[in-house]
Each structure stands twice: as C-alpha cells, then as structure tokens.
Amino acid sequence: MRKKWTPFRITALSLVSALAAAGALTGAASPASADTSAVRVEYTCTTSAGPGAQMTVWVVGGLPNDGAGSNSAPGNQYFYIDVDLDMRELRPVLTLAEGVRLDGDSTARLGARIVGPDGTRTTEAAFTFAPKWLQTTQGTAVRAAGAFPAQVLSVPGGYDVRVDDLALTLRPKRADGTPLGTITASCTHDPAQNDLLGTVLVQGLIAERPPRPDGLTVVSTTPTSVTLTWQGYPWWNKIGGYDVYLDGDGGHTGFVTENQVTLTGLTPDTQHRAKVVTVDVQGIRSKMSKGLIFTLPRA
C-alpha cells in the first residue's frame, strides 16, 4: 500500500530565513524567480518553400524557483516554464531573394515531454517572433519568446523537461511591410540527441505566500513605453505593493503601490517579457506572475 504524501507547510518568510541561515540565499529580497537552462537541438525540417532543410535551435528555458532551492516547485501548486528560441540558421528554411523582415505575426510551437515519477505527460509552448530585419539568415540569430502552459505536479521527485518537435509559421515582409506570403516548416530531431532542457524538483512543501498577480495586460504602448495593469489579491497581511520585472530577474524596474505601471525609455521595435511580484507589508513575496510578452511599435 502506497504511503500517503503529506506536504510540509511553511510561510515564505520562514523559508527564506531558513535558506539564508543555511547559506542558500543572500537575503530576503531575492525574488521567487527562475533559473536559465538551455539545450541545443539540430532539427530536420520539411518546408512549404521547397525541399527538406537542417536547422540549429537553442531552446532556452526559465525553470521555476518556487520551492526550496534552485529549479524547484511545491507539489500540487501550479508553476510556469518560460522558454525562448534562438534560431541561428534559418537560411535553409527561409529562402531569401532579398532582405526581409519578420514580425510578431510569425509564430512557432514547440512540443515537450515532462518525465517524472508519475509517468510522462506532453505539453506545448507557443511563441511569437521578435522583430528582425534579415539580409542574410546564415548565422543570424532570430529569436522568439513563449511559455508552456501552467504545470501542476503532485508526486515529489525530479521531472525532466525534454523538448520535442518544432513547427514554424513564418510571414516575411518587405521593408515597407508588404507581405511575401506564408512559409511553414515542420521540424523533428533525432531521438538520440540530447533533448533535456532541465529538471524540475517537485517537493512535499507548501510555501505560503501572497497569491501571485494575475491577468497581466498591456493597456497601451508607444515606440518607447508601455503601460501594464494586473489583478492583485488579498491575503493574511496587507499588500504593500508590487515589484515589476522586465526581461528576466535582473530587469527589476521598480516598486509600485498600485496594480498599474508605465515603463519608459524602452527601445522601439523590440520584444519584451514582463512579470510582477506581490509584496506584503512584512516583505513576504509571492511567486512571479505568468510572463506577458509584448512588442513595442516601430518609431
């Protein structure tokens, strides 16, 4: 008979204090964030533009730090895995007679398997492309940002996140914005290749924190600014405000007391990922919100 798993409950502030005392953290100000993991995958693609092609893709993922330690998540609580694509060799897929531009209407989908002690489940991440002008695609980095749907894992243990097939829908344009049609590609990789993006450790631990913000939305944009809003939720302590992050944990843009912020001084025609963390009056922090990917207009 299988032993029933009873999770250990602890407040996030106590968890941070314990980890700091053990040398695992440098201070209570560290956000519930994500560690970056990456894997290089060689894909063989069948395209609508002609014969098959080979393509190199770096898959870069942000694994959760929602539990106790790196790449961890409490059991029975949802978490997010951000993922970016860095395509260094699009030339065989996107045959160019002239320079072209790719925008956010070019998309990709990446399959993945999550393999752990309770078996294997499949999931799929959706991406939008960052704006890019291409005069040659050989050796030029083309990037797209996305995320897997929220994951909830129950049985404690290590869960390997392994990438699978990749599908591209490319809509190149001329410099003046004139569409050049749609090119699709269906890409597979040799199963003998390394396809391990990273391992998430699911723990029998419930870190009680303020609820994470939800409903992060773009209100308006200019070529150099964006206004964001989101939904915050009450909990035991009074909410003090929100930390806002742009393009990773190192992109802390400031602390606000309302559930809205305007970020200025940004670069036109760029893609970004924003996240928000709730902070209560005692300094207890929520997990990071789901990332919101947006693109600023051209100047």
Automatic annotation (TrEMBL):
UniProt-recorded name of the protein: Fibronectin type III domain protein
Pfam family, one: DUF6801
Gene Ontology molecular function, alphabetical: hydrolase activity, acting on glycosyl bonds
SUPFAM superfamilies, per database record: Fibronectin type III
Annotated organism of origin: Saccharothrix texasensis
Highest rank taxon of the organism: Bacteria
Signal peptide: 1-34
Keywords: Carbohydrate metabolism, Glycosidase, Hydrolase, Polysaccharide degradation, Signal
